[in-house]
Amino acid sequence: MQRRHFLALASAALAAQPNPSYKPKRINKVVELLAEDQPVYYTESRGGGYDEGRKYARTWADYIDYELENGDFNLSALREFMRGLIEGGPTASGHRTPAVIATLPVGAFSEAVMRANYWVIQQVLATGIHGIILPHARTPEAVRAFVEATRYPFAKPVVAGLGEGMKGMGSQLHPSKIWGIAPEDYLYKADPWPLNPEGELILGLKIEDRHALQNAEFTTKVPGIAYAEWGSSDMSFSLGTPGKKDTPQMLAARNRVQAACKSAGIFFLEGSREDTVVAKIKEGIRLGGSNEKAAHIGRLHTQRQMPW
């Protein structure tokens, strides 16, 4: 009995091994995986430059969360970080770089805040990153302004309730070099996925306070948003129980954001560990912060073919 069990486990592990001849299909590794219903795993950068980029170039993670919200808003360092990723790469999967998603240093407290700070979104994207996650996403109007700031005026598809894009000439020049494509190609590929099936940008929301929670069912439905998280630490602050993440009120907040994501047809982000990663995958969670061991377990479980 034990021998049969061992052979079954060995056979499953062998079947799950990545394909050594794998060829990338897209620029953004996260979009490529999610389009195939494969979970993605991230690690965090604390805002370093070139040397840190080289260090992360062959990371075990699928994407890097680049911290701008509470760290230095140093776009020169971020540009150097991206250059370091290129010079230290490619990834084991053959992608030019891991995907990089920046945490924006602007809270979406209102539409007026987002309109006034659209330039921050455009400057961050001009470094050549692959996505942005927006903190404190409180209103659908603010989220729509966020999405519009990431698009060009000629972007397709045009959808009801979403105004024209706000990016202009020149914004394609540097990031196209980072992506390794022609500037004219960047104009069409730098658009939110899955709104644009050919888009290579991914946009997320942090529904992380009690005000944002009240509009979760509306903000998650704004076209152009691909995923959301419930921001447990900030949510605990907002609910008046800082650091306490297992109260009934906190659990209800988590479940409401997850249900809103499911209703909107977008992904729900939540962290995982070695002992929880498989259960979270079975629950439908496809984006998760974790350590390398947990990511390895998850990838074997889903029989991922993309090398890591």
Write a structural description.
It is a single chain. With 308 residues, this protein is of the alpha/beta class. It has a single domain, classed as TIM Barrel (Alpha-Beta Barrel). Helix content is 42%, strand content 11%. The chain has helices at residues 2-15, 29-35, 50-56, 75-88, 111-116, 118-125, 140-149, 173-179, 183-189, 210-214, 216-219, 232-238, 248-264, 277-283, 292-301, and strands at residues 40-45, 63-67, 99-103, 131-134, 202-206, 227-229, 267-268, 287-289. Strands 7-6-5-4-3-2-1-8 form an eight-stranded parallel sheet. α4 (75-88) links the parallel β2 and β3. α3 packs across α4. The longest helix is centred in the last third of the chain and has 17 residues, at 248-264. The two termini are 33 Å apart. The relative contact order is 0.14.
* Head-to-tail CA distance between termini: 33 Å
Q: Unreliable segments (pLDDT under 50, ≥5 consecutive)?
A: 5-14
Number of strands: 8
Order of helices and strands: HHEHEHEHHEHHHEHHEHHEHEH
Number of domains: 1
Share in helix: 40-55%
The portion of residues forming beta strands comes to 5-15%
Tally of alpha and pi helices: 15
Overall pLDDT metric: 94
Attribute tags:
308 residues, alpha/beta, TIM Barrel, eight-stranded parallel β-sheet, 42% helix, 11% strand
